[in-house]
Specification:
single chain; 338 residues; four-stranded antiparallel sheet; 7 strands; elongated
Length: 338
């Protein structure tokens, strides 16, 4: 009964676990909540293994990670700490005898994806991040406990695509490394990250990749293409005309809002979070550019180029459909879309 009571009581409370500042905070019985300066919270338990000595001959006192506080609750941490103390009292080293509940690689990956959603540049980037792991890592190591993944398991994911899909493999390696680093920070792993070991050991062959550039429309075809767009009333045609004149990416044009336009200074300022390079981009507006967008003010939309749904930007699909229609009609469009 004494052990049972110890597992359910202590100095900490759920509210304290959520709000305590950086440092090591004791719950009693060797259980501690460690709060890093970054705000990350994890559990550790300190035990003295009966009858065992360290290298200096002193009683063997060891700290063990029990997992992150965002995954392991206070009561679960107390239960696991009690299990470790019982083993230590019996002379058993918990490092070799504990039966911890270790999450799988896929479980940690999906949690990392959720936690980082606010940081994605856009929804598409977020989906690409998890889809790369879904397609190339989960089938091979997704169900494995995250603490059992080493170099051989990582190589199972990377080797088949290292040369044929090198850029994908490179991104996959980065994402596996992030997942394993997060798992370590939560107390589920220890030691060097196998992705780092593979890179530093040059285990995989060097691959020279030549950049593949999209074919551009021949400049001789641009005047006819633009003239054809001017005959069309579709919103996609106006957006394409504006894209031609500014030399911007279609994503930047489609997401353009009226707040980015300064009619007095004749300037379009595209914010950093919508630029591929992450740097603010300013585009002077010519008479032709203004002639395209000024009539659209009357629509009173949030976006300059509004789609079919009110206050929603024109979709990239609408532009592609227009290009396809023009192509069917015999207009040269090859190499335009980016």
């Amino acid at each position: 009964m004494w052990y049972f009571a110890m597992a359910l009581s202590g100095k900490l409370t759920r509210k304290l676990v959520e709000n305590l500042g950086a440092g090591r905070h004791g719950d009693g019985g060797g259980l501690y909540l460690v709060v890093d300066p970054s705000g990350a919270r994890r559990w550790i338990v300190r035990v003295v293994v009966k009858g065992q000595r360290n290298a200096k001959g002193a009683p063997l006192r060891t700290d063990f990670g029990l997992g992150g506080a965002d995954i392991v609750t206070l009561n679960q941490a107390r239960d696991r700490a009690l299990e470790y103390r019982r083993m230590a009292k019996q002379g058993l080293n918990p490092r070799f005898n504990a039966s911890r509940e270790i999450p799988t690689f896929e479980e940690i990956s999906r949690q990392v994806h959720i936690d980082r959603m606010p940081t994605w540049k856009n929804e598409k980037h977020g989906k690409q991040w998890i889809n790369t792991l879904r397609d190339y890592a989960f089938p091979k190591i997704g169900r494995m406990p995250v603490d059992s993944i080493g170099q051989p398991e990582v190589l199972m994911c990377l080797s088949p695509i290292w040369t044929d899909k090198h850029e994908t493999a490179r991104r996959l390696a980065q994402r596996i490394k992030i997942v394993l680093d997060v798992a370590k920070s939560k107390g589920f792993r220890s030691g060097e990250n196998p992705v780092t070991e593979i890179k530093e050991g040059q285990v995989l062959p060097k691959v020279k990749v030549r950049p593949k550039h999209h074919k551009a429309m021949a400049w001789q075809d641009v005047p006819a293409f633009y003239a054809d767009l001017k005959t069309r009333d579709a919103m996609a045609a106006k957006a394409l005309m504006f894209t031609c004149l500014t030399g911007s990416r279609t994503s930047e044009v489609l997401g353009m809002q009226w707040g980015e336009i300064d009619f007095d200074d004749r300037l379009w300022t595209c914010p950093a979070d919508r630029m591929k390079g992450g740097v603010v981009h300013r585009v002077p507006l010519t008479d032709e550019m203004l002639a395209i967008i000024k009539p659209l003010v009357a629509m009173k939309s949030n976006y300059v180029f509004e789609g079919q749904k009110r206050h929603r930007p024109l979709s990239n699909m609408a532009m592609l459909m227009l290009l396809r229609r023009m192509q069917i009609e015999g207009v040269t469009v090859h190499g335009f879309a980016r």
